[in-house]
Design brief:
This protein has 3 domains: 203 residues, Vaccinia Virus protein VP39 (Rossmann fold); 69 residues; 58 residues, Archaeosine Trna-guanine Transglycosylase, Chain: A, domain 4 (Roll), CATH 2.30.130. 27% of the residues lie in helices and 24% in strands. It has 13 helices and 22 strands.
Length: 446
Amino acid sequence: MNLPIDFCERMRELVGGEYDDFIKSYDTQINRGVRINKLKCDTLPKLFSDSEKVLWCPDGYYVKDGTVSGNHPYHAAGVIYFQEPSAMCVAEVLPLCDDAKVLDLCAAPGGKTTHIGTRMKNKGLLVANEIIPKRAAILSENVERMGLTNTIVTNETPSHLAEKFQGFFDGIIVDAPCSGEGMFRKEPQAVDEWSVNHTLSCAVRQKNILDDAYKMLKCGGYIMYSTCTFSYDENEAVVKHMMEKYNMELCPIPGLDMLSQGIGDGMENCRRVFPHKNKGEGHFTALLRRTEENETATEFVKKQNKRKDTTLETAVRLYYEFEKSALKVHLDGEFVLFGDNLYMLPQYVDIDKLKVLRCGLHLGEVKRNRFEPSHALSHAFDEDVYINKVETLQNSEDIKKYMHGETLSSDVSGWCVIKTEKYIVGWGKGSNGIVKNHYPKHLRTL
């Protein structure tokens, strides 16, 4: 690669005698990884039985090109998430308390959101935020595909969220926008955009984002800070800033001893991934704990809406009629209606005056006094919850036809889920031996 001279000089100073090995790593094969979604499967699918594990993530595996793609039924069913192996170290080690309230502040495309969501097992509250609208939409789709039901997706600035959620969260992930030095092998355009001044401007932005994150953190809560850059200015220097400004504690990170320590005195608890030492791209992470009490803290209680909303009542009634015919569970929570779309909110949260793309579990849409289930509802539960099922194999013509948008043949009647092995891909509706396809059009393969 044609690396910038200033970058090479900075890396020579950073890694010292390991510089030649570091440079040689740019000529080695890129490591690609998938993370298994434990909300969907208890055991490793046979497709990955021979795959090498990622040392710092129990559910992470290295995969060769061509093993699996975004068109594979496992991907459509939310069984796997494609994720750079180094990035799997962040959400894996964020401490979680019971009924935790967690914020992923810079969340798109959703790797760390869906990772921490699986660890939370759909309990507590997870807020996933992305400031760029198009990226927030991708984030919302991944939350849906991976079956997260306790998650609210927002499209807000960190400062606006900080006004809303003062001292509220037990844990916050800040995977901050950075200069991307660690991704040069995978994203060559980052090389063209790189400069020393760019790394310094990124550091300023990172500190501003962390300032807002700190306001939203409970006393005793944790910030998991990460970047995909080697730059000291964006990594240890930013951590040092938070420690000095707010008296935050830099905590040891259990389970990451195989990674390199941070650089500089007092930074030993930080962790770095170097591609010449570990099978992954460049990454940095640090675990910071708030030690000071909050001057003010936001506490939300479940709202008791005394005003009778007949439109909402109708939507809930139609949903319950659908539920009896299609599901073996009864959902009882705080329902909200956005237009004709019915959601069930995670409890104890106020979304007023926020730009919200997804507020908990999207149940479905009311259409002409009937209820049509959402794609999210097909991904929300284990297969045993759904009454009617059409079974296919992962490489069968039937599942390929379904993912193309075609009808299937089956004696099933009414709403049903289409599954490949034990993993659900989406909805269908059977009548007279034909199952009409309800796989979302924008997800269909060509």
